[in-house]
Amino acid sequence: MESYNPSEDTGPAFCIGHHEHNRLVTVTPRVIQNVHESNYDMMTVPITTSYFHSRVLGLLSSYLANLQSPTYDVVGTMATTQNTRPVVVPPLSKADSYLTPNDATSQLVGVTSSWIDLCSPDPLIADLSRQVLMLEVAYAAFCGIGYLLIPGPKLHHGALHSEGVIYYARAIQDALNLGPYIQFHIWQQMVDNPELEIDTMGDLAPLARAEYLQPDEGAPPKVDPFGSWDAWDSIRKTCKYHTRLFVALSLPKQLPSLFVQSRWHSEPVRLLTIDGSTFLKNQKGYPVLSKSHQGLIAKMMRLRTAPWIILCGVGPIPGLENIEDPDTHQASLSGSDYPSLSQAGKKHYDPTPHLSYIRNLQQRQPPRTAIERFGVGYQDYLQAPLQPLTVNLESITYEVFEKDPIKYEWYEKAIYKALRDWADQKKATSHPDGKVIVAVVGAGRGPLVTRALKASADAGVDIDMWAVEKNQNAFVLLQRHNDTIWDGKVTLVQSDMRSWKGPLVRQQEDSEPQGSMCHTHVDIIVSELLGSFADNELSPECLDGVNDVINPVHGISIPASYSAHFTPVSAPKLHADVVHQTVSNPAAPETPYVVMLHAIDFLSTMDTPAAGESSNPNNRDRASTPSASFSTTEFPTPFVQTAWSFSHPNRHIPPQSPMQSTISNAHNVRQTRLTFPSQNRGVCHGLAGYFETVLYGDVELSTNPVTMDAKSASMISWFPIYFPLKTPLSVPENGEIVATMYRQTDDRKVWYEWMVEVYALEPTPASTKPTPVSYARVGSPSVESLKSKESVTKQTLRTGYRRVRVGMSDLHSSIKDGCLM
Ligand SMILES: C[S@@+](CC[C@H](N)C(=O)[O-])C[C@H]1O[C@@H](n2cnc3c(N)ncnc32)[C@H](O)[C@@H]1O
């Protein structure tokens, strides 16, 4: 492995911008230069002016003055047939926008008007708002603006809640078509907090006519932790997971629970806006962010595409004042360059303390971990799994495996322990001269052979070393290594392991010097044929092929067993990628992919939200009141369950039928049906799969996020697997996700089938409210505990509820891309 110096790893770079609600300037290259000199990377700019705002208000008021009150028509509708005589906003004029195309435009984030209300229940207001948005988007596109920040949907209109989100979404769909080169960022709050939805002077929302509103019943509006995410979900669904549609997330002073944070972390958040009021003051009076804010920012910044940070309401950019020049609207670049007298009196006056803090936070980001460095460019990137049985790997692929800092160490440890136990227990070997016969099957370029020789030397146990490999190209390297590093100690066999008859040794009782040779057994067979889902690269089928070669009394396989694990996930980015691939490849949604999962949210977790968390506005910041099992910055632990397992040597392979010409593989079929409780509402896009393996004794490898740190932290050889769903399924709060999965075979190939059902839990008359069940103790069952699976299943059943199925996926099958045996 290349040497790595963490101090040279600068961590993620922050791109920081400045937002001012009412910027009254034409942004020229000179202004941008000023922005950069102040240490900002970019700035926002409103598309239209307050003059335009007044013009639209004037238009509306004169229109309303001449309009009769809306009434129901004969068919009982009010919104669709009456009063549809449109009010038309005339095109923009010079005074309506300060924006003008110039060299600075590409460095700007345009902001559309926040005073419109696309969700208004009054069709007049909604239509006027839509026209304003369209005019702004069209002009921004004309000017060459690449990024737009669009204030999110207004969710509360009296007693109506979230009713207009679909109208908002429909308008965004039009906007996406109108600005074909613009990236759209929907500016969302983290939670739906009605108290934060305040109308300001000049907003169109309060102008909605009473006839279209529903009387407010006086019930106090509640904070809905997932309400804002719900609105975003409707918008992106309506826009079919558009590739240019993103989230701009506003960080509140009080962060919501880690469940809500982890949901947003899985969404395409490309802008993080932080208001000056979100900062705390440290002892010296400087603005700082809380530990939980720092934790969330650190996580966001490690995403494949790190969001830009936009500071709002933190004072002007030094040297750039909002002094409107009536003729040119050019920014005044003087005056505030100079601090006031009292400021000048301070020794280290910092005109941009919020910016300095964020720059400092950037420098304090921890260096990337081994897996992060290894996975650069691979985060959330769909890859077809390897088929090393049918395809010969390239040297570079082996080279990548061999960089793993853990896997080979652990194999060496396992071989060492197996050899020591063999010697200590004085077990008879398969070799006439007493050496332990060790064979690496599927040796590749030979790293496990090197490790086995080292383990033998360290354990002081003599071995007869064999290496079997079917890749003729890798075999050339094995021959070379035998000459150069292994002193010719290794017997090399170029063969498919399934047709290998075992080691050839000279019979000892044979007195002739050139005595006869015979096949014997292998005492310890070492292989590494595992895929991301354990058995998906056909390790079971390959090792069945050498089953009879293993010493029938004491024979050991390293690995001794392996198991496949999975859990349902929300993975919007992966879903969007699969949908786009489906255009050219109809099998795309029925393919399991290898992916370095990052922007995903686990829908079933081991930490249960505190009672009433979803609806209690006083219980929003779990981060500030951590429970014993709840960290302030770590996202909840997923509930990962075991699908099935395989062990070797397999003493139970059924005898082959003499009636069949092909070898039956029926004993390697598996099926499972597992129930996952869903604590919060969400969308299931697929299943994330992992594996665990017992190499020997207590030496284990794991990619399962629940156990990997304890079993094989920092291992980088395997990314997880992702089983997508063609159509995402909505998941209710306190519901259940049931996944049924098969490993199928027709004796020529192996494939997987999977389907997901979603259930809501309805309390039966005896009970009143579903109590969330904690799965913490159920954990991720080991292969051993699988034997007592019944007890696990029992623990996950909830009493007092009736399951009502609310969603069901297709039965997906990867048969077309099955793994050839
Ligand atoms: C994942 S690589 C592991 C290589 C090496 N042992 C290591 O750990 O770096 C699996 C190797 O097994 C070989 N292989 C797979 N199926 C085989 C079979 N049926 N017979 C022989 N070799 C096989 C492949 O060619 C490949 O070299």
UniProtKB/TrEMBL annotation:
Record: active site: E528, E537
Disordered, as annotated region: 608-633
Biased composition (Polar residues): 613-633
One GO term (biological process): methylation
Cross-referenced InterPro entries: Arg_MeTrfase (IPR025799), Arg_MeTrfase_PRMT5 (IPR007857), PRMT5 (IPR035075), PRMT5_C (IPR035248), PRMT5_TIM (IPR035247), SAM-dependent_MTases_sf (IPR029063)
Keyword set, alphabetical order: Methyltransferase, S-adenosyl-L-methionine, Transferase
Residues given in the record as S-adenosyl-L-methionine binding sites: Y398, K407, Y408, E469, D496, M497
Molecular functions per Gene Ontology: protein-arginine N-methyltransferase activity
Matches recorded under Pfam families: PRMT5, PRMT5_C, PRMT5_TIM
Location of the PRMT5 arginine-N-methyltransferase domain: 372-558
Ranges for domain PRMT5 TIM barrel: 39-363
Annotated site residues (Critical for specifying symmetric addition of methyl groups) in this chain: F401
Positions of the PRMT5 oligomerisation domain: 561-812
GO cellular component: cytosol; nucleus
Family to which this protein belongs: Belongs to the class I-like SAM-binding methyltransferase superfamily.
Protein name: Protein arginine N-methyltransferase
